[in-house]
Structures are given as structure tokens and as C-alpha cells.
């Protein structure tokens, strides 16, 4: 009995020491540089960094002023889009830069072993929904926002096309969430990818009451402190920016190939 107790105490002490070492390692790590602007695509990465407790340094990329076109940023993100990261402590201990939010989420998931399971079946579950967001929900909701809120002309056909598509996608998500708490079962990077876009349902002309499972999932997501911190990161930066300002629109809309 006494021996069992001692064994348990030794185990608990070792566990405590391991946790302390891991925490120290996280603190000692050089911060990840986060190239960011507070939008649903940016939130994916601020949420993941917050969820993992990784140290990071925010580097704002004011896309309304064209900072996404600076030569320094284009070296990191040749697609002139944020988010992007530079991890000074990349593979082999050397820096690595990554653009595309889905690739960043996967990298951080592999790096930390969190929210991106190693088991192949579970990983495929996550990846299906991550890519569903990257190729579907994000681009469609983005186009819908453009035609509903920013376009110079009102184009009912374009608005309806994207409103319908976003509605269809929310329906798919609602069905998926019928018998599971999160998109891949357990909370994962797929949920993080979706939440910023899903949170805009009202602006996207959708009625959340049509999607009760989606509504429950969104409430669960928004109750997570790391999600709250991630979606609050830098929102003050975009205060006072008018997306209908012709100068802002000249930067963001009508982009064509440069230097080719
Ligand atoms: N597929 C990209 C999309 C990123 C994206 O569209 N970012 C927008 C803001 S939400 C941007 O940087 N826009 C700058 C521009 O349009 O020039 C990703 O997921 O990382």
C-alpha cells in the first residue's frame, strides 16, 4: 500500500517536471511572426496560436493600404494575401515561412501535435473539412460579401448565386454537426478555419434558425476563450477604414497580374 503510494507520488512528480519543462520550452521559443489583418482568414491563425499557447509577434499587414504588395511581404507570401507566418524555429531549427491559412494550420498542428490528429483516419476527417472550408465556405462567403457589401454596382444575379451557395454550404455543415460536436468529431483546425466565416452569417444574408446544429456549434466555438482572443486580435486596427472608399477599393479590387 505504502509502496503504491510512493510510486504514484514519484510518477506525479515526474509528470509535473515534464509539464514544467514543456512550459519552459514554449516560453524560451522565439515567437512566431504572424503577418496578419483582422479578417476571417487572419482569425484562423490567431485562434490556433492562442489555442496552442505559442508565443507570437503580430505584424500588421494593412491590406486596405496595399501593404500586401511590399517586396518583403511578397517574399513570404507571393500571392499578396495574408495570413502568413515566419517560424524562426522551423524544421532543423532553421526559419521557415508559410502562406495560405490551411497550410499554416496544418504546419502548426504538426509542430505542436495539437488539434490535428496523427491517426490517419482521424487526420483525413480533419483534412476533408479543412479543405471544404478552404475551397468552399471561405471563397463563396468572400464573394458574397463582395457583391452584397462592396461592389460598386448592385448585381442581383451575383448576390443570389453566392447567397444560395453559402446557404447550401451551411446546410451541409448543419447536417454534418447533427451527430457530432465538431466537424471532425473532436475539436480541430477544421473548426478554427470555419468559425470566422460562420460568424458572419447575418452579414451574409443567412438565417441561423434554419441551421440549429450549426447554431449550437457556433455558440460552443465562441465560448472558447482562445477563440475569443483570436477573433479580437487587432480588430482596433481596421477601425475607421471604409471599404467603399475609392482609394481602398482601388487597392483591393480589380487586381491583375503584376510584373508579367
Ligand atoms: N486562400 C488564402 C486567402 C487569404 C485572403 O484572401 N486574404 C485576404 C484578406 S481575408 C487578403 O490578404 N487580401 C489582400 C488582397 O486582396 O490584396 C488563405 O486562406 O490564406
Gist of the model:
This protein has 260 residues and is α+β, with helices and mostly antiparallel strands. The chain has ten helices and four strands.
Q: Name the shape in a single word.
A: globular
Compounds present?
glutathione
Gyration radius, in Å? 21 Å
Q: What's the total count of β strands? A: 4
Order of helices and strands: HEHEHEEHHHHHHH
Measured distance between first and last alpha carbons: 77 Å
Tell me, rounded to a whole number, the average pLDDT: 94
Enumerate the spans where pLDDT stays under 50 for 5 or more consecutive residues: none
Beta strand %: 5-15%
Structural class: alpha+beta
Count every helix, treating DSSP H or I runs of 4 or more residues as helices.
Answer: 10
Helix proportion = 55-70%
- Largest sheet geometry: 4 strands, mixed
How would you describe this structure in keywords?
single chain, 260 residues, alpha+beta, 7% strand, globular, binds glutathione
Structural commentary:
Strands 2-1-3-4 form a four-stranded mixed β-sheet, with helices on one face. The protein contains ten helices and four strands. 56% of the residues lie in helices and 7% in strands. The model has no long low-confidence stretch (mean pLDDT 94). It has 260 residues and is α+β, with helices and mostly antiparallel strands. The site of glutathione has 11 residues, from loops.
Amino acid at each position: 500500500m505504502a509502496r503504491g503510494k510512493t510510486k504514484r507520488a514519484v510518477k506525479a512528480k515526474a509528470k509535473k517536471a515534464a509539464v514544467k519543462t514543456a512550459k519552459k520550452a514554449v516560453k524560451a521559443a522565439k515567437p512566431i511572426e504572424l503577418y496578419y489583418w483582422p479578417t476571417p482568414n487572419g482569425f484562423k491563425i490567431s485562434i490556433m496560436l492562442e489555442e496552442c499557447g505559442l508565443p507570437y509577434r503580430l505584424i500588421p499587414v494593412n491590406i486596405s493600404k496595399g501593404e500586401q504588395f511590399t517586396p518583403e511581404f511578397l517574399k513570404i507570401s507571393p500571392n499578396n494575401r495574408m495570413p502568413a507566418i515566419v517560424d524562426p524555429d522551423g524544421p532543423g531549427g532553421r526559419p521557415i515561412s508559410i502562406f495560405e491559412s490551411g497550410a499554416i494550420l496544418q504546419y502548426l498542428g504538426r509542430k505542436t501535435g495539437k488539434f490535428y490528429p496523427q491517426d490517419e483516419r482521424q487526420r483525413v476527417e480533419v483534412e476533408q473539412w479543412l479543405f471544404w472550408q478552404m475551397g468552399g465556405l471561405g471563397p463563396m462567403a468572400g464573394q458574397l460579401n463582395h457583391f452584397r457589401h462592396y461592389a460598386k454596382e448592385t448585381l442581383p444575379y451575383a448576390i443570389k448565386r453566392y447567397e444560395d451557395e453559402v446557404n447550401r454550404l451551411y446546410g451541409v455543415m448543419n447536417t454534418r454537426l447533427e451527430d457530432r460536436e465538431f466537424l471532425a468529431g473532436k475539436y480541430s483546425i477544421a473548426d478554427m478555419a470555419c468559425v470566422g466565416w460562420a460568424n458572419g452569417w447575418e452579414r451574409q444574408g443567412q438565417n441561423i434558425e434554419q441551421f440549429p446544429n450549426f447554431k449550437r456549434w457556433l455558440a460552443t466555438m465562441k465560448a472558447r476563450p482562445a477563440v475569443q482572443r483570436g477573433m479580437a486580435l487587432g480588430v482596433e486596427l481596421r477601425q475607421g477604414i471604409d471599404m467603399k472608399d475609392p482609394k481602398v477599393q482601388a487597392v483591393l479590387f480589380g487586381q491583375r497580374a503584376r510584373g508579367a
